[in-house]
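hey so i finally got around to running the thing on that chain from the lab meeting. sorry it took forever, my laptop kept dying and i had to restart like 3 times. anyway pasting the input first so we r on the same page abt which one it is
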Amino acid sequence: MNVKLRVLTAGVLFFTGQVVFAQKDTTGSKKDKEQKIDEIVVLGYSKTSTKAKSSASSVTIGSETLENRPNISVLNSIQGTAPGIVANSASGSPGSGKFNIIIRGLSSLNGSTDPLYVIDGIITSGSQFRNLNPNDIDTFSILKDAQATAIYGNRAANGVVVITTKGGKFNSKLRISYDALTSFSVLPKTDYNMSSGRELLQVQKNAGGGKGATMSQNDINNFTTNTDWRDLFSRVGMSQQHTLSVSAGGENISNFVSLGYVDSEGNIRGTDFKRFTLRNNLNGKSSDGKLTFGAIIGLGFSKRNQLDDETNTAINANTVQNPLFGTVLSAPYLAAPTFSNGLGLFNQIGTASGNGNGAYILYDNIMGGIRNQFTETSLTANVSGNYKLTSDLSIGNRTGVDYKNYQRQFARAANGYLSLVVAAGQGAKYGGFEQFNTVNDLTFNTTTNITYNHSFGDHTITAAAYLDYIKVNWQSYTQQQNGLDPLVWEFGAGTGYVPFNPATPNIYRPSASALKVTAGTLAYFGTVDYDYQGKYGVSGVIRRDGSYRFPKDNRWETFWSVAARWNIDKENFMEGSGFNLLKLRASLGTTGNQNLFTVANNTNVLTVGPSSYLDYNGPNPTTAPAYQSLPGYYLANLGNKNLKWEEVKQLDLGVDFNYKGLVEGTFDYYQKRTSRLFNSIPVTYVTGQGSLRGNNGVMDNKGVEGSLRVHILRKANTKLSVFGNVGYNSNKIISMEAPDLTGDFVDGIGGPADQWQLYPYLGVNPANGEQLFLDINGNVTQTPTAGDRRLTGKSPMPKYTGGFGFNFQHDGFFVDALFSYQKGGYIYDNLYSWVMNPSYAASGLNVSADLLNAWTPNNTNATVPSLSAVNSTLEGSSDRFLFKSDFVRLKNVSVGYTFDKKALGNLPINSIKVFAQAENIYTFTGWKGFDVEPITTYSLNVYPNPKTYSVGVNVDF
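ok and heres what got predicted. didnt touch it at all, straight out
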């Protein structure tokens, strides 16, 4: 029977058998039609199964969910599509690497929480995929339970994401496809009720500080300047993306080639992204079918200009270096900037960065005073082959590389304001500096397997043995030149460098540094799958892992899983029930986490902390130079020969069903326990250190998740289906030795990870306008102390996540909508606390107009404290600005029409689809800030995800 590949909008991959008719008999009677549907489940190490025979908990998202979305990274397109997955972008900057995917809750406190990513069977060091064209992806599979992830052992504690790219098909005609998308994006607004120029002056006058305090009421009433700083710092971002693909296949060879281009403007001026991608996927087989082989190569090059704060956390709260504050905190009573560069600004204000002048400095930063450009060249390539030694026994190998070259060029421009201020402070003629950083990251992965597959009677057994080897080589080089001559300096050109002079050793001194890390893992493992009559199945995995990170006695660890399923719909008593699928499944197993550190963007997690179990002497900090300013070393890490892997044991119980093709879904209950948490263990300071790295604590994640799709209409020309999914996760720290409870944000026993520890805010004292709080004994107080804080049970991680929507089609017309949501998380809105602080108004920053309704002797029922409240600095450790991060977001809506071959007549085109869509266009939330999506602690540094409107076309020749 011929088969064709069909990908449903729901994001589920199916092989659908074409309708088969028997030959017409002499009496003219007709045979019944036959149709079979088997959902393909993509698992680890290039294994696949059908939905009916899989005992794993996994979700496969198909290409139609990912294609033609205005998202640079494919990760942005999966939010709301699968239960149990927290997917959120922490930055709307084009090409940003600040993206989080959490599968079934946090599995580590201090180690990496990113899932393992596998592209076309090769483990990758990537976690953001800005150089991967989403239109090249065939399936995006998320492996969740131990049965699905234990096969990846040492790196699968946080789940596994398996990405499979498109390929050609055997015996297929030449197919040419062209996709184009043009998008326009806008920056969302805050709900802080920010002041106009006149209102800010009034707040200052009421508070007795700032420019307004020196003005008469009449002057304020007649003040007219009201600069729109949002318009100066942001813009409507225009983007375009194009993909051209060609595929064809003969009897023994098939090929797929794709070329892609993206050009995207950021909503904050000075940010943008460009990308070129090229992919070639070749598959082949021998005439006798014994040998199958493949060769895949993907090339990508991207360049992006982004804000320094994207990777430089030191300036997150800096109001003269972080342009993200420019649209909110810039004083509207200031006139729009008139200078052409930082020199003009310096001549205008000198070194006076206060009194609101920070707005001008930030504007100079984004207009060229700070340059921050990244380029990334990437190569993913692998070759694979499988040979059948007998009808039951085969041997195979897949070998590949994941190579990335990152280059960063950063400069404080020669005529940038910040450069000139620093030069003036040093008494130097020239300011500025330029820095070049290059990273080469190569991951080599080879996997060899031997597989036995045999069927006898009603029994089928498949057993396989694997050897998996990974080697990483990582190098970083940094060079910096201090002192730039504005007459000849050009960004990135190496010109205009001021020579070093020994007579002035503290200025114009160049610097250089380098770092090299070699890392690797080795594993051997086996799998077995047994099926009886399609009714019952048992599966198992056992894997032995070795890692360089741990001492010799702890270097090897064993991980395992067992699973079973019962296809109830296959039982005789279910005949005529209408269930096409009704399956119970259960699994139990372990995975490990050797990645004991979180990593910055563009850093291979295997290279961080390579010798955590050893005593380590690091370079002496420059802030505390060694004797006579000579280079020195100090004890940076106290070794621990007992350091081990983090281990995650997971139980999963699930049910999958399909009733008459009308209602289909899946539900799961899981328990996940992380033991041997990587954490600090307190030790006596006699050792020279207050703690050492070790295993300290146990943490649980428990939850339920489910998805449901209902096909309301299934007529020939009209189809309508609605769908939804939900995931609930409860996180709790079970045990920990001497937890640190000294801050506002802690890990306390009995509560969730990253728990807020604050004292309650009660409101305003009507007698004097002071803030009121609740102390640890339950008494009302105006002077709380650190000891009054208590564990709140609240954390930034949402408890509920999911999505819902519908797909409608009538003839060629279609409408699709996807909503995403989350509930149960709490984030401290630090930016809101700033705009509600009258002292910020006095220093020349913009604040909320709500301060005009602050408490006064004549306004004693106010909800805003007095502008002169004595305890105005004490709310920082209270829950006054701790808000829910709940939201329901219209993530994507698409409307379009498809012209088929019949409508196109004799044109050499098979189909044309034209459509319009919108992304993130409306969010239902009580959050007042820019963007509620990022899961963070403090809303200090948020480049909001934009609202995007697009028009596109797909042409299939």
